[in-house]
Amino acid sequence: MANLKDLKNRIESVKNTRKITKAMQMVAAAKLRRAQEAAEQSRPYTERFNAVMAGLAASVGGSDSAPKLLSGSGKDDVHLLVIMTSERGLCGGFNTNIAKKARAHADSLLANGKTVKILTVGKKGRESLKRDFGQYYVGHVDLSDVKRLGYSNAQDIASDVLTRFDAEEFDVATLFYAKFQNVVTQIPTAQQIIPAAFEAEEGAEAATLYDYEPSEEAILADLLPRGVATAIFSALLENAASEQGSRMSAMDNATRNAGDMIDKLTIQYNRSRQAVITNELIEIISGAEAL
Amino acid sequence: MADTLQFDLVSPERSLASMQVSEVQIPGSDGDMTAMADHAPTITTLRPGVLKVSGPAGDAEYVVTGGFAEIGDGGISVLAERAIAKVDMDQATLKGMLDAATDAFAKAQDAKSEGVDDAAKALADVVAIGDALGISVN
After folding, report:
1. Do B12 and A44 touch (CB under 8 A)?
2. How does pLDDT run across A129-179, given as a tens digit for each residue?
3. Which residue of B14, B15, B73 is in closest CB contact with A208?
4. Catalytic-labelled residue, pool A39, A81, A91, A265
């Protein structure tokens, strides 16, 4: 009976799908571990860096001579959105969530009469925002060939952003990425990187009075561009961990769904097979009775 | 034995060293400085150079570029954009750094920007690293 064969084929194909999603989940789990380690290793740098910058910014920030990267260009007209997403799909709501956050931000900026420029990192976000915001795209960074995210990737993006800032192409830059909370939760985050905002730590940090060599201003001017790179680097790492976490849970769900589906189809298959047998029996018996 | 202080060397990608040392020679952008225990709190930016530490656990040398060193009450933290242990340093790595510095210098010269002096200094610093380590690019 054709129906039985169809069911059998269907079960086979779902089983294959389950194998694939299972494999993807395991690959994502392994990659997630590596991504988390990388994020962990960069944390001491980022934390110390931000602590020192917060101290410096607090003491220099108020003056008129503060570098533009810290005080801003004095305007708030042109916004650059750096939207970081993944290069590959099949990772649940990861890209959608970031795109949604960026879209809402861009919409509210446009509604307030600001100019929006968009720099995308990662193919997926670029594709999903293209229809509504394609005309605002100013650039794209392709990381699909990058096997292991390094600081140099962040430096490249940072120098691109800084060149645009120096050319006065924008006034405010905001990063969009997903912060890694755990495997099931990734929080889409918007972080302003230019003008730089450092969260000052309370108490201890302000207490130490440092000697500066060269001057405070010179150090700040030297470190601010590096701060942009650092912020981008940690966002890249968080994003990578989030992507793998998201993919892992999405693939876990898919594997489970496939399992449920196989169970259901198997029951259906057995039932219809039984029905065929019963049917045949009835035919035989009624045939025998007719004689 | 002199007093020791905590020394941390971190780059964005990983933490390279965290140990008790007795002195650290830092390639500051205004010149080398050696920090020992109870040094006055100082923050200095780094130039490309060789960072030397010596302590009870032995001596070590690292090539660092870009970043800053923070000498505080709790010890010394060196945050370098790129930090490589001396043993891992080879001709190819140095050549890469040299090429990058040469490019930056050439670009600054072309653009006749204010960065020419800085780029020239950075290039000289990288050349000095090669001399200090006894690695020749050619």
Report:
1. no
2. 998 898 999 989 888 888 888 888 999 999 999 999 988 899 999 999 999
3. B73
4. A91
**Which of these, A39, A80, A60, A90, lies nearest to A168 by C-alpha position?**
A80
Min Cα separation B108/chain A (Å): 14
Chain A residues close to B121, C-beta within 8 Å: none
pLDDT per residue as tens digits for the range B22-44: 999 999 988 899 999 888 999 99
Ordered by where they begin, the domains of chain A are 2-21+251-290 (1.10.287.80), 36-248 (3.40.1380.10)
Residues of A in contact with B42 (CB under 8 A): 210-213
Enumerate residues 6+ apart whose C-beta is below 8 A from B99: none
Contact status of A213 with chain B (Cβ, < 8 Å): yes
Q: Which residues of B touch A219 (CB under 8 A)?
A: 43-45, 68
Measured CA angle at B44 (ends B38, B50), to 5 deg: 90
Q: ipTM of this predicted complex?
A: 0.84
- Return the structure tokens found at A240: 């990578």
Is residue A146 less than 8 Å (CB to CB) from chain B?
no
DSSP code of B114? T
Report the C-alpha gap between A173 and A78 in whole angstroms: 9
Of B13, B14, B41, the CB nearest to A211: B41
**Closest residue, chain B, to A40 (C-alpha):** B14
Does this model's pTM top 0.90? My answer is no
Chain A from 231 to 250: CB within 8 A of any B CB: 233
Q: How far apart are CA A135 and CA A252, in angstroms?
A: 37
The answer to whether residue A91 is catalytic is: yes
A41 vs B contacts (CB less than 8 Å) = 13-15
Rounded mean pLDDT, B36-60: 89
